[in-house]
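We now fix the convention by which a protein and its fold are recorded. The integers have meaning only within a learned vocabulary of local backbone shapes. A complete example follows; check for yourself that the lines match position by position.
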Amino acid sequence: MIVWNSIYSHFNPIAFEVFGIPVHWYGLMYVLALLVALLVAKAFVKLDNYPISNALLDSYFIWVEVGVILGARLGYILFYDDYTGYYLSHPWEIFNPFDRQGKFVGIRGMSYHGAVIGFLIASLLFARIKKVDFWLFMDLAGLSIPLGYVFGRIGNFLNQELIGRETASEIGIYVEGVLRHPSQLYEAILEGILVFVILYFWRKRVRFVGEIGVLYGIWYSLMRFVAEFFREPDAQIGFIAFDWLTLGQLLSLLIGGFCFVLWLYKAAQIAQKDSGARNRENV
């Protein structure tokens, strides 16, 4: 376990350089996450006979990727960044990958909850313009996002960011001399693998189009809420209430709560329709 505990002291977050520009493992994992999500989506289109062509799916993927990147970056600036006012008054700096000395540092600071909002806006626009069923694409996204998400969190781990809280556990890793939970990997398992397994088996029990997408919002939020107990709160924010509630947990409660109410509402609609159909048959 000693090698594992000290993995950061033996690991370089920079994979290689291209013309002097460092390429981080995080960036590679991000690209891999997108590719995995797309491949999983195409697999489920064939497996479950989704009425979605390859061309339409590729087009949708481009739309939502733009939405995810914009939403993730803007979400971080609005929810977490200390310099929100500066970025709002200097919007051209939001995606500037160079520091003030002209050194390439990449684009730092992404919010998953912001990415979700950007994803939903892009999906709504896509459905409206292309005249397709929004909820059908939400089902497909709910099945394909979790496994891609796993690689995103592995990227966070390799980039030595979003660190965990202090621990005495043997599976902890040293971060600047302090033993901490590898919370990024906990999130990969809980919010990625476990959510995928749940939705994979639930998909044969769906009662309405869009149920998988809504359930993804519920289960992701629940797993994120739990994982936050092992993740160090953002230094610039800390706990926002009760000396234990983090901003990530609050956002998860809001999104998860909305999805849960929506799920109950749509399930009640289906139950009412079924009851009405049975009554007509008995007349």
